[in-house]
Amino acid sequence: MIRPLLIAALLGLIGGSAAAGPLTVEGTLGWEFRIYPGDAPGRSAESTLGGEVTLRGRQGPFRWQVAPRLWVDPADADRFRWMPREAWAETRLGSFRFRAGRDVLTWGSGDARKPTDILGAADPGWDFLEPQKRGEWMASVTASTERAGLEVVLLPVLDGITFPGPRSAWSLQAAARRVGASGDQVRLLEDRLTPGNMSEASVGARLRWSVATTDMHLVGLYGLDRTPVLWPDTDCPDLAGCLPTRADVSDLYPPLRLGGVEIQAAPAGFVFRVEAAYRDQHTTDSTFAARTEGLADISRQLVIGTERVWSGFLGPGDLRAGVELLLDDASAASSNIFVFRPFQRDLAVSLAWSLNDFSGTRIEAGWIQDLERPEGVATFRVHRRLTPKLVVAAGADVLYGPTPRSLPELANPFYLFSANDRAILELRYGF
Asked: Is the distance from CB of 316 to CB of 299 less than 8 angstroms?
């Protein structure tokens, strides 16, 4: 019921704003091509066409923003996207701001990983390696001054996430074929299972305190984890002792009671970040708990990092270098692939060189290395402006994982998808 009411209210504001005042319109049209030159068990290429338009306006005391979009992969209907990432209206009363609709909020101070960024899920079905947040229906109240601030957010419904479709190189079907099972016997049901004694609603709060060059946030959430785990209805639930002959896989959204802290300081040209989260995910729903076996009821996540920018690097350019240590004990002791979380004890390194030339050339490189196992991900991108409104980006992503020595090691995602090295070409036209 909440979705049609919000959409109707936003349409009313748009119509009134168009008649009463100026309407701001901007957007992007794009084409993206990805090729998988290795022996990936899914599609060897992906091609995407589409665009997104952002409309902004005012109607009396209200300000609104809507970002309709349409992205199409002609060869894969599961990568069709039309739901806007943003469609909200807001108003202010003194130092308070009230906003409702579909929105994208990002919490956290980390770069490669943000343990306290728990308000919205990414979209792995669109891009598994670099998923973009797809937006959530929410209502928020914000009060802010220079020294302090508080943001309270209600997420009344759970949309869930969209997983890679059967044709994708990142799908469960492709993973099954990688280990010699039949991908045709794997079905992803996407039925968004939640604990039977909990509603879909979640509420979160973020308190800010700032002094000099240091910002500190305290974060809390009560509700559901927007990042699901998977549960297979199969004769071999975790690949620990056999290869499944069939699997009907459902996505489960565990409960989440989270307390976290974010600290970011910028002394003497450096930026230091610390972000930690304590996660309580136990449930009294015994059926749900059995389906998430292997996921720790209590877990902790920690990110410690630093960043430095050198101006005038090789001329007028700027070089940014960063390093982060990523820790997560949620699934460290589990062999169950379906509750796997990739960052358990990892090191992330990033470099970005902006040449500050007329073409806006920017070169980026990143690397995440597991400190316990021989697995990781490396990325490289070059961005360049061809015309004032046309930007091209090209690069590559490389995955590497361990060589399996036994059947359980086949279930490592860094083996299942290590054949998915890819080259990427993007064109973006802004207006």
From this structure: no
Overall pTM surpassing 0.90 (yes/no): no
pLDDT of residue 181: 76
Token reading at 160 = 């869930």
Cα dist from 105 to 57, 86, 119, 215, whole Å: 20, 10, 7, 18
Calpha distance 118→132 (Å, rounded): 14
Q: Which two tokens stand for residue 426?
A: 């993007």
pLDDT in tens, 123-164: 999 999 999 998 999 999 999 999 999 999 999 999 999 999
- What is 198-226 written as a DSSP string? --S-EEEEEEEEEETTEEEEEEEEEEE-S
**Residue 166: count of CB within 10 angstroms of its CB:** 18
Q: What is the pLDDT of residues 213-246, one digit of tens each?
A: 999 999 999 999 999 999 888 877 555 556 667 7
Tokens read off for 335: 């062999």
β pairing state of 186-188 and 247-252:
parallel
Burial class (CB in 10 A: 0-12, 13-18, 19+), 251: buried
∠ CA 27-31-32, rounded to 5°: 125
Query: Which one-letter DSSP state was computed for residue 127?
Result: -
Residue 399 corresponds to which tokens in the numbers above? Answer: 């995955």
C-alpha angle 147-302-376 in degrees, rounded to nearest 5 = 130
Give residue for tokens 């009411």.
5
Whole-number Cα distances in Å, 294 to 36, 188, 342 = 33, 20, 14
Angle (nearest 5°) at CA 121 between 30 and 134: 30
412 is written with which tokens?
A: 């490592």
**Spatial CA neighbour of 330 closest among 312, 342, 317, 319:** 342
